[in-house]
Amino acid sequence: WVEQDPKEILNSVYECVEKTCEKMKQLNINIANIRAIGVTNQRETTVVWDKTTGEPLYNAIVWLDLRTQSTVERLLKKVPGRNKTFSKFKTGLPLSTYFSAVKLRWLLDNVEEIRKAVEDQRAMFGTIDSWLIWSLTGGKNGGIHCTDVTNASRTMLFNIHSLEWDPELCKFFDIPMEILPNVRSSSEIYGVMVCFPVFESGALTGVPISGCLGDQSAALVGQMCFQDGQAKNTYGTGCFLLCNTGQKSVFSEHGLITTIAYKMGRDKPTFYALEGSVAIAGAVVRWLRDNLGIAQTSQEVEKLAADVGTSYGCYFVPAFSGLYAPYWEPSARG
After folding, report:
1. Which position among 41, 93, 120, 151 has the lowest Cβ density within 10 Å, counted as fewest Cβ atoms?
2. In which element (H, E) is residue 286 found?
3. How many domains does one find in the chain?
4. What kind and span of H or E run contains 165?
């Protein structure tokens, strides 16, 4: 199980904004020149909150969490031939513990408070971007409930061609469509920043929030991979290779997923990417340090690896959260 406190995530954003603005003042940069704010976030991580109180109804279930393994098994029984790629041409994704729909299904099945909030029409679902944008634009006092196409494309509930929530998939997962956020492009004004309740000041009050991209799409954009065929690889907790396939969605026969790379404005075209997702990359370095005690610091790992001429054909596969691309096997282990 991997979960996080959504309020802690939100407070870290408040603090980051305030501290950054303080630093900018010290450097004689006028924060009145800040014209826009962008949001980027860990993808797939699922939050359900109460729109009347503004409080999360449960911890955020993080992307690499595996508690939904039995949920996936149960859902697969409803699919002819137990074919986990049954929705590939709509969503670009296989049925896996990784994506938001199964996390949301788990919450609805296991958290009484969330079931009740859905019945009372108080519940809102979102990935981390939605939770942040809603909170930053006013929360229970008029916050904007939206997401962008890149984050929506990671839920398993979104048709990546029509760019709309898919009623058939919502029915398959038994998820009420009214709790889903509005889907917007990655670059438009969603709303404006309101004063932070935590800090009376709210340095960026009134500044529009006008960019939103899931972290791996944001890295693709940040590395300026705007041409068909350009790719980036990111090594964080996991490792994600994204290749821009231009305005056409390309479907892999070899276990890669098809995802939305970006859509830079309401009337702008949608760009797609092929993605190879690996759940554990940087996290295995921490594991070598903290759990196995092989190194004192993360930096030492490189030196240790360089000192060895050969591993004599011995490999360790860090499948701590199952294997993602290309196998999509949640029961695999390290």
Report:
1. 120
2. helix 282-290
3. 1
4. strand 164-165
Strands 37-41 and 208-214: parallel
Burial class (CB in 10 A: 0-12, 13-18, 19+), 7: middle
pTM above 0.90, yes or no: yes
Dihedral of the alpha carbons of 70, 75, 77, 81, in degrees to the nearest 10: -120
- Residue 331 burial (CB count, 10 A): 11
- Could you tell me if residue 122 is inside a domain? yes
Tens digit of each residue's pLDDT (9 = 90 or more) over 110-122? 999 999 999 999 9
Percentage, residues of the chain above pLDDT 70: 98
Please state, in angstroms and rounded to a whole number, the distance separating the CA atoms of residues 236 and 63.
13
Paired with 320 in beta bridges are 322
- Tell me the sheet residues that pair with 126: 47
Identify whether the C-beta of residue 146 lies closer than 8 Å to the C-beta of residue 182.
Answer: yes
Tokens of 227: 């041409």
Backbone angles phi, psi at 261, to 5 degrees: -80, -45
Is residue 52 in some structural domain? yes
| Domain-located, residue 235 | no
Please list, residue by residue across 107-145, b when 16 or more beta carbons sit within 10 angstroms of its beta carbon and e when fewer do: bbeeeeebeebbeeebbbbbbbbbbbbbbbbbbeeebbb
Any domain includes 305: no
For 294-313, how does the pLDDT look when each residue is reduced to its tens digit (9 = 90+)?
999 999 999 998 999 898 99
pLDDT, mean of residues 219-244: 96
Q: Domain range spanning residue 82? A: 3-213
Sheet of strand 123-127: strand arrangement: 3-4, 60-61, 46-50, 123-127
**CATH number for the domain harbouring residue 167:** 3.30.420.40
Q: What angle do CA 105, 109, 113 make, to 5 degrees?
A: 110
